[in-house]
Amino acid sequence: PALASMIPGKNGNYLMLDIGANAECRPEMLQQFGIMGSVYMENVEGKKNPTVALLNIGTEDTKGGELQKESYALLKTAPVNFVGNVEPSHIFTGDVADVVVCDGFVGNTVLKLTEGFYAINASDGVVTPFWQGLNYEQAGGTPVLGIGAVVTIGHGKSTPEAIKNMILKTMHSVEIDIVGKLREKF
């Protein structure tokens, strides 16, 4: 399974996988995350032919450790629109990829860092559409992909607004049969 989270970018939202389900991954898992993320973005978010990137320390295909290098090679052969590596400094532009794949340790670190930036800006009264997009209440929860059922995990501090949005997103995933669409792809 992989945890997925919609992250806002200045030029549009993207989906990040994995944000914590698998702290240690094998390259085959990251390839599967790319496929699952592509299916999710196309069917749940309505993005046609979504682009998929691998989160790494540089854009060159020779960057990163063995996990990233081997995952890069597998993602190139996957039935997705793979656009290569993306650096963390570019992910908030929103124009590098529709799906960003990484292991759960890195993804959870990025997510919690993002939540911290939102909290600081909110407490300072900074209100912009970009910063509001970082408010976990808007997404409500995080879908768990690859387990054979529609499951959404909420934040431990979920508010009524977050729970409402989580239920709505979960209902939409059931209505479009995201589990069936994932099964078809695999």
Class from helix and strand fractions: alpha/beta
Read across the widest sheet, the strand sequence of neighbours is 4-3-5-2-1-6-7
Helix share, percent = 40-55%
Q: Cα distance, first to last residue?
A: 13 Å
Order of helices and strands: EEHEHEEHHHEEHH
Counted beta strands? 7
The chain-level mean pLDDT equals 89
Low-confidence stretches: none
Strand fraction equals: 15-25%
> Strand count, sense and closure of the main sheet?
7 strands, mixed
Number of helical runs? 7
Shape: globular
Radius of gyration: 16 Å
Features:
7 helices, seven-stranded mixed β-sheet, alpha/beta, globular, 186 residues
Any overview of this molecule?
The chain contains 7 helices and 7 strands; from the N terminus they run ββαβαββαααββαα. It is α/β, with parallel strands linked by helices and 186 residues long. The two termini are 13 Å apart. The model has no long low-confidence stretch (mean pLDDT 89).
Short structural summary:
The chain has helices at 27-43, 66-77, 104-123, 129-133, 136-139, 160-175, 178-185, and strands at residues 2-7, 14-17, 51-55, 81-86, 99-101, 141-145, 151-154.
List the helices and strands and how they pair.
Blueprint: E1 2-7, E2 14-17, H1 27-43, E3 51-55, H2 66-77, E4 81-86, E5 99-101, H3 104-123, H4 129-133, H5 136-139, E6 141-145, E7 151-154, H6 160-175, H7 178-185
Parallel strand pairs: 2-5, 3-4, 3-5
Antiparallel strand pairs: 1-2, 1-6, 6-7
